[in-house]
Known about the structure:
Layout: E1 3-8, H1 15-24, E2 30-36, H2 47-65, E3 68-74, H3 78-84, E4 89-94, H4 97-113, E5 118-123, H5 133-141, H6 152-162
Parallel strand pairs: 1-2, 1-4, 2-3, 4-5
Amino acid sequence: xxxxxxxxxxxxxxxxxxxxxxxxxxxxxxxxxxxxxxxxxxxxxxxxxxxxxxxxxxxxxxxxxxxxxxxxxxxxxxxxxxxxxxxxxxxxxxxxxxxxxxxxxxxxxxxxxxxxxxxxxxxxxxxxxxxxxxxxxxxxxxxxxxxxxxxxxxxxxxxxxxxx
Length: 164
């Protein structure tokens, strides 16, 4: 069984994330969405809220693809999380060249830590390349419409959290 791990903070999950998840299901038999705790980023949503959002959106993708998709909170090293869930493949989404520089360094470090885990990069579709959770939150905080960037349930959650 091919198990992949797609890590991120998913604060909140966006249509760009969902695009990567949907396409990653073509590569694996089981996809684990690693929801990083990452207190340094100061998430808007709690870990439980982010996991619930990921699970709700991924349930639709599981039904469509037939691939099991599960959310897995983690706070340890990415490579240790991959070992914890028996993943042999890490999926990373790329939006721009700036993403690649950081990801390239991470792959190099992860290869030293465990060369049995491969990393695959998926480019976001053109219409999703500009979407970043950080920008979505900023637009929502300032009262802007983020419905083109996030699923409807996430849009509703953002409005409830930020009073929009």
